[in-house]
Amino acid sequence: MNKLTLLSNKYVLALSLSLAILLACTSSKEETTIKKEEETVGPITGPDNDKDDPSKEEPPAGNPNAGNPVVNGAVTLSATASSGSAYPLFTGAFAHENPDCVHSPFGPHVTQAFDSDLNKNVFVFHSHIIDDNDRCTNFDRVRMEIKGSNSKTEHKENEMGYYRWKFKLPADFVGSNTFCHIFQIKAKSGDAGAPLITITPRASVLEVIHDAGASSANSLGKVVSVPLAPFKGTWVEAYVKYKSSDNGSFEIVLTRVSDGVTLLSYNKTSGIDMWRTGDNQVNRGKWGVYRSKGDGKTALKDEQVRFADFCVSETSEAECPGG
């Protein structure tokens, strides 16, 4: 073999090794990028920054306390039947936002059903990734939520909010890499784009995220993150306590109903920004399924998320007891 052939072979070998290293680095970079998108850290920014549109709410009608009895000063909401629409129950203290404007043939997007695990009637929130959208206003996302809508479920500055409810994600639930919220604390006016707090299930983790809005320097971002798997296919009781203040407080505990095991907890007694500027401002809770249609990297699907036993108090945890 002559020197020219040897030299040529060396160049080919060197080129092959360089190409292999380049491909390996590119693959590793892509995997890291996907991982970061899947478990985003930081304040809530981007496509889920939307203000509530009162014109898109289903307003309270009829008896202001229909479906929302007041027990010991707290407002409660529970399913009353084993089938049929739940919309008639969302009156008085709660309003609802639905995708019926675009997907009316399906019927009501919150129904009632008997649940054998809880041995009671519960709410079923239906979310269709293709057929639904966000109230015929935003078309890159889907929304089916209920939210506080009167003085007992909306909180002024320096007022306390005590919430308790139950939820159950499907065993095969798929979270979005962009945003997917099953609970929000949201300002009603003014600086009301991003929610103050969300419970956000992603592909492999469940996060609790804080956003201070225009005062972005005060945003805590992801305050806690735990594996999503323990939340799938089982009932979870949620407890939230917060003070609506620039120097506010926030506490959350998520407990598995079947055995009482705490799956997530976080408590900040002061120094968390839980108030936004705005005319006649209030904070209120929102429950349901609000999610992006996706970024093309995760195959999202239709979901049915169950909820039960909502309770809202402005006085004490004792008015919304667990169990």
UniProtKB/TrEMBL annotation:
Q: Which PROSITE patterns match?
A: PROKAR_LIPOPROTEIN (PS51257)
The residue ranges flagged as biased composition, category Low complexity, are: 63-72
- Signal peptide residues are 1-29
Residue segments, region Disordered: 32-72
Answer whether the UniProt record assigns the keyword Cell membrane to this protein: no
Example of a GO MF term: lyase activity
The record, for Pfam families, names:
Polysacc_lyase
Alphabetized, the UniProt keywords read: Lyase, Signal
Biased composition (Basic and acidic residues) is annotated at: 48-59
Q: What is this protein called?
A: Heparin lyase I family protein
Which source organism?
Pseudopedobacter beijingensis
